[in-house]
Amino acid sequence: MFQIKWMWKNLKGHRVRYVIGLIMCSMSAGLALATPLISQQIVDLILSPPPGQERRVELLVPLVLLMVTAVLLKTGLGYTQVMINETTVMDMLHSIRCCIFKNLQQQDMSFFDRNRAGDLMTRMTGDLDMVRYAASITIRVIIDAITVFTAILIYFLCTDVLFTLALCAILPLIFGVCYVYSKKARPMYADIRERLAVLNTRAQENIAGNRVVKAFAREGYEIHRFDEKNADYRDANIRVNKFWMKYYPAIELTAQSMAIVVLLLGGIFVMNGRITLGQMMAFSGLSFTFANPIRNLGTILNDIQRFLASANKVIELYYVRPLIVNRVDCHKAEGRLKGAITFDDVTLQFGRQSVLKHINLDIKPGETVAIMGNTGSGKTILMNLIPRLYDVSEGEVRIDGLNIRDWEIHSLRRNIGVATQDVFLFSDTIDGNIAYGDPDMSEEEARHYASISAVDFASKMSDGYDTLVGERGVGLSGGQKQRIALARALAIKPSILILDDTTSAVDMETEKFIQHNLQNLDFPCTKLIVAQRVSTTKHADRIIVMKDGQISEIGTHAELVHQGGYYAEVCALQEALGGDENGQA
Ligand SMILES: Nc1ncnc2c1ncn2[C@@H]1O[C@H](COP(=O)(O)OP(=O)(O)OP(=O)(O)O)[C@@H](O)[C@H]1O
């Protein structure tokens, strides 16, 4: 089975320990036979010896001591094997988790577009826990069941074949029932797992979007939506339980019927003198132990189905490979790139939708290009092509004359500073967030780029630049977050700086200050600035206007105003609104 092979692969380095644990588990299970077998000896040799045989009272103490030793040994083995298996499985999970997280880091944007955060979290937590449960508990239950079952079967066969055959007559029926059950239950468990992922996604979205929920007073609606998914999950669980209850009576009845067979046949055989009273007692005691694995079969099957459903999801994440990868003969960018960018007849499609169509653009090193255009015109997606977050469908993007697909991805991205539209800050200090791209950055350097980006507000906070921000930190305004994101992008001294609406939430005066600083950076840099404000775009060397995934206008501020197209309209509008004195041509 592939899932088992995969677990075995991940046990590398711990396999011997794991197998020793399982052998101990098997030995401990086998010792369960000791008590009934020694009891048989006590009855047959001391309490009620068969006619003609001498009573061996002197064996009582050794036999009792043997029984105590067996019990102690079983307990000791059980304890040690649990310790060994739990630690081994934890080691295995640690390496699986590392591998999956590493794999997630390498995925491209389209992977995160396709997969919901809640589903990914379910795989990393609940599903992985199911794998742990199977590798540590289910496997022990199975080994325990197989050992006990096989040992007792051998003992029964050695003692009386007819008796054993009578006891086992119903077993093929049970195994048949179990086979049918597990086949039919498998999709049901996969369904439960899917519903859990949907439930988690709903909860995760709700927590992330709690501000919107509160602002629109939609708590009741959200509770209702969550309840729907919660009920779906509950119903799926109930469905599988009901399904199991159809099969349960057959299995339980067989387990119970064994005791009846033992009493009935055993009684007759003792009376016939075919077996001794001690053997009958051992049979009776063991038949209960023998029935236990059969009784546990349902739990084992259910656990196996849950494991398979979860393991498949974890394995998917374990083996998924990104589409955007380095070529074997890729070129590593040593040092700084010059920052020349060429879009050569670039088209990008998502499914059937062309979001960029035949883009041709040459940007010289050190040039500042502003990008304007309607919502959804393709500005952000065009910027996303530069760090190769998406691959073009047709044409090519070249950086410093080399096709972007030929650059080693990390070395390329290290040369590109990006401040995105939706600012994301980590749960870290302001300093920590600014130095994110280069952990070796000195405090002075981080402060320098903070001052360029107008992160001066930090010094007024209680802990200054050591103030915690992000999810668990203090609340920041949109403009403050944008300024930290800008400092973070600048701090790596990129050859190419991409600012996607980065100063949209910043007040006019601060924006002016930032614009001035951007024009006087202390390192050479090609700048691409997506903006809606003319005050931001007018100083650019060139402005391009995007429309429906195409470049509709291109030129300097003066040229575009003169052309009288979209850009000129925006200028006129912003001038008329009067909020932007820089909007004038
Ligand atoms: N991952 C994606 N999958 C499918 N379509 C996408 C994806 N990202 C963007 N699009 C589509 O591409 C088009 C351009 O999106 P883009 O984000 O570039 O717009 P934009 O010009 O930056 O808009 P805005 O000014 O509102 O940010 C839109 O129609 C959008 O729906």
From TrEMBL:
Subcellular location: Cell membrane
Membrane topology field: Multi-pass membrane protein
GO CC term, one of those recorded: plasma membrane
Gene3D superfamilies on file: ABC transporter type 1, transmembrane domain, P-loop containing nucleotide triphosphate hydrolases
PANTHER family from the UniProt entry: ATP-BINDING CASSETTE SUB-FAMILY B MEMBER 10, MITOCHONDRIAL (PTHR43394:SF1), ATP-DEPENDENT PERMEASE MDL1, MITOCHONDRIAL (PTHR43394)
Transmembrane segments: 20-39, 59-77, 133-156, 162-181, 247-271
Name of the molecule in the record: ABC transporter ATP-binding protein
Domain ABC transmembrane type-1: 19-306
Family matches, as SUPFAM superfamilies: ABC transporter transmembrane region, P-loop containing nucleoside triphosphate hydrolases
GO MF terms held by the record: ABC-type oligopeptide transporter activity; ATP binding; ATP hydrolysis activity
Record key words, sorted: ATP-binding, Cell membrane, Membrane, Nucleotide-binding, Transmembrane, Transmembrane helix, Transport
Domain (ABC transporter) ranges: 341-573
